[in-house]
Design a protein that fits this description.
16 helices, about 675 residues, single chain, alpha+beta, 24 strands, seven-stranded antiparallel beta sheet
Amino acid sequence: MHEMAKGSNVALAALSENIGSVIVSLSWVSPTGEGDADVSVLLLDANGKVRNDGDFYFYNHPVAADGSVQLLGKTPTESGDEDRITFDLTAVPSGIDRIVVAASRYEGDGFGELEDLKVTLADGGGESLLRFAIDDAGTVSAIIFGELYRRGEEWKFRAVGQGYDTGLPGLATDFGVDIEDDADAEEALTGSESSEQADTAASASAVGQEPQVAPGLVPAPRPPGNEVGLKKVARPRTAKKKVTVPKVARKSLADNESWKQARLFPVSVLKSDRDREMRATSVLLSVMAQVPEFGRRLTAAFGAPAGRMETFTEVSLPHGDTPRRPDGVIRVERAGKLWTALVETKTNGNDLKPEQVQAYVDIAARRGYEAMITLSNDVALEGSPLVDVKIDGRRKHKVALWHLSWAEVTHQAQMLIRHEGVGDKAHAWLLQELLHYLRDENSGCHGFQNMGSAWVPVRNGIDDETLCQGDARALDVVESWERLIRQICLSLGGELGQKVLPVQRAKRGADPKARRSRLADELCLDGRLQAELRIEGAPGILAISADLRTGKLRTSIEIPAPEQGYPLSWAKRLIRRLAEAPADLHIETLVEGETGGPRGTLERLRPEPADMLPKNNSTHITGFRLSLFKTMGSSRGNAESGFIRSVDDAVHRFYTTVVVHLDRPTPQQASAKERAGTG
């Protein structure tokens, strides 16, 4: 990988031949697990200015109608998460000379509070080409990480690293984006049109149209919640409203529950794993081709351009004496050029076969195809590939190997039809039928459901204290646990319509394999599997702990004490907010300089909130820890009644019965907490 210094530049063609489309990733690490920033992209003409406000892309205006820019959102990594942006350089308008890639923080937060700031760029095949690390961010609240620019017919990348003390408004003003003053901005958003703007914010990207950014408005950062008094976010406008499915299903016209509704994709005829693989592949690929928003969402992360998509199943391709038949083929046409990916599908927990995937990669390389996509219930981990494939370095053409889990397919479909919307009712109906198919017990597309062959021996070894550090089986369990947590993030995020990401508290530049080995050794010592989830809008980090010795699951959250008021008022308000929470909820008061304060169940504390307070009135209360306990399942097989199902149920129950009732933090509270954690 080409390492870049500040101010240096490089021609992309000198690094790869596959630069028609590129993926730019911005990443950083927050020591507290809560710090974040918003990514933005500006398209500039020869004068160094945007042509209009439509050339400014951000979280609420993420897609260009011509496919040249698409913000893919955040993706979990080993040390935190990263924002990915795909650029189809062949589709960039001829009047654009430069593309600026930047990020901004808010409410007085600076990039100096984050660690390991860097930008990387990968070609259309997914191969990382360059890296630029920023180690002098200081207190600036906006940074230009880098820029893509033309020199004649070729594209180059420049490592910029320029900061702005004035944040996103200062950066945007420099490049010609109009900004209203705060009063005008608030008035524009409190009038009768503000609700229409909010309702139609995401539909432009869904239907492939260019949203028109409201003139003179720069997006405010996304607030943690929708509290009264916070400034609303400026929304792009579009004349066409998005379509989502109703939150409450209509009353059925059936005489009784034994009647089964007719489905576009029936599952009753599926009798074997082969039947399930063929049906699942055909169902998914057909919906991808017919619902452009969905197809584009799945393929953009693989470097595919925006264009006309066609999909095929059971294609015969020559390979020695015996033709090979991949489960599917995806082809995207743009400007007379074809992007092609082979698809290999597994269902019902079946593993991918390395020799089969290797053969398809070889075929794709010989035929000049761009990608090989594997699809199964398993979840891929960074630094731990599901299938080891050898790449022939003598071949000029390289094929990118990507993996997609059925859980991610379900997540993306749910995000579109439940929260963001699609172009028309027919598309929403198709996606709803796809979701119904994927969720059916007989489809085999249920996501990660098996902790693996090492699960029972490790649990037994922990129980009888015979499991030793360095045991490879403990490492297998740690990897399975990480896959489970990533799948829970997808599931919960799809239900909420919000980002849910695993928190990885790793040292800067830590090797993912070394981190998992350390966690495996800790598992052998204390018998616990632990994880943390960052949920957008939640007042704290949701922690999960599975104690394999006691067979107990603990889900918890720590919330900071209010900055104003009296401790007794805090306790009474918390009890009122938790009026509908489970009676067995454990509440612990966190006090400064002590390992633990007063604690009790919600049932006991309801009549006497004062019991939450320390006896010593001078003791400083820093917050409260709320916890629920549950007995974990023990089944190892595919049945969802086992450990995996119990963890999933515990997280969903804790969020829906506890976290949703808590006060959402203001940006000031969140930033103060982060500064306390980094000081």
